[in-house]
Amino acid sequence: MQTWTKNLEKWAKIPFLARLAKQFPQAEVFLVGGAVRDAILGRPTKDFDFVVRGVNKNDLEKFLGKEGKVNLVGKRFGVFKFRPKGYMGEEIDIALPRTEHSLGQTGAYRDFKIQSNANLKIEDDLSRRDFTINAMAFRVVTSNKRQGTNCLVDPFNGLDDLKKGVIRTVGKPELRFREDYSRLLRAVRFACQLNFEIETKTWKSILKNIKNLNKKIGDERIVPYEVIAKELIRAVNQNPLWSIELLDKSGALKILMPELLKSKGCPQPKIFHSEGDCWIHMLLAVENLFGKKFKKEFKNEKPTPEVIWGAIFHDIAKPYTITMADRLRFNNHDNLSAKMFRQIAEKLKLSAGGLNIETVEKIINKHMLAVHSQVAAMKDTTLEKYFFNPNFPGQELLMLIFADISATIPPSGRPDFSSFNLLKKRIAKLAKKSKNKKQLPKPILNGHDLIKTFKLKSSPQIGQLLLALREAQLSGKVKTKKQGLIYVKKLIKVSSE
């Protein structure tokens, strides 16, 4: 208890708050919301919100203007984005106490009438918030010395829910979700972010209302995909397995990306996949991104969000490509999986949540590289294309390949990493030709050189010649520009015979 109190009390020492208290003796200032929650949990936070009572909006604006830079974007709602002089962190929200009234209870996340009131009780301001753990305030400035300056205001028992590890709505779940259906995913996101359980009544209400994520008024979505994307990305990035389970059990996957659920019950050849169906394989691949073997292999480098999403979607097309010949086969599933991911990502606007869709698409498309190719016979130019190209996410591809292989369990129970290890050796051998181990030596000739020297016209032949020359250069057969010209001359002579 003392630890989190100290975490919160440090905010009372911000110089501009002391000056605010001196200029406005009647003022009360509260740190509210996520910053209070995270301080109690001992989690780092970048977002700080303060509520100021007892000071009218115009006076507060003038004061803040003297203390730093004020962004008036939320002024009409009684909210100021504020950066104190010399402060290097994120903008701080400074707000008057507010009430929100849903307009028609359509569930639109912006469908509120917001009123600010300098004299509104802090408890009334907290009552409009979504979950109990976000509905606490910590008083850092007050004129009433009898109350004590630093104390927690917790009208909805958020502290108890933090201790229990529970996500619970403020008041009736039905009302909270009907006010804003984006809170359905927000509950899942907080459960994943904090590794909490969702309280029973809140969960039942989520199950009842989840279909409203796709609700529309006319042609306009009640909850925009951009909002959905941000909640999905944050949930999955924080706790991939728990998020998949909650999104599945809540019905959100069925509503938002039903294609993924086709993996359930989709069989795989047991000679390669004793772990189970495509769904189980996917879950195991995601889980293995955080296992000891992965950490050892990649020297504690964490998988990026793109690798996580790549693992979730890498085999999504298997149910759509399954055929039975000599055994179960999924021809071209890697290419189709990449295309399906792109379609789903664009529909859900996942890029709005910060996910690099192009990177995910690329690594899904090539995740079978170590299987489809005989790695020993793979050309150096192919290795260069995928692992020494600044425009291709080679390291993330390796991570996805590793996760996929680690989740591919033959009857022996031991995943076969032989092709992966050989691929690594080929990459390492090629890297020795580079000083920085990331970019290989520049090509010794370019297309202009070939056109000028051999009087060639611009055509596909130029690219073919350069590719063959690059392969010879990387293999060590050609080392100088003069040798390169001789090599190309021979190629042209052979092709013309």
From TrEMBL:
In its UniProt entry, what is this protein called? HD domain-containing protein
Tell me the InterPro entries matching this sequence: HD/PDEase_dom (IPR003607), HD_domain (IPR006674), HDIG_dom (IPR006675), NT_sf (IPR043519), PolA_pol_head_dom (IPR002646), tRNA_CCA-adding_enzyme (IPR050124)
Origin species: Candidatus Buchananbacteria bacterium RIFCSPHIGHO2_01_FULL_46_12
Q: Among the record's GO biological process terms, what is one?
A: tRNA processing
Please verify whether the record's keywords include Nucleotidyltransferase.
Answer: yes
One MF term in GO for this entry?
metal ion binding
| Annotated Pfam families | HD, PolyA_pol
Q: This protein's superkingdom?
A: Bacteria
Q: Which terms are listed as keywords in the entry?
A: ATP-binding, Magnesium, Metal-binding, Nucleotide-binding, Nucleotidyltransferase, RNA-binding, Transferase, tRNA processing
- Give all residue intervals belonging to the HD domain: 307-370
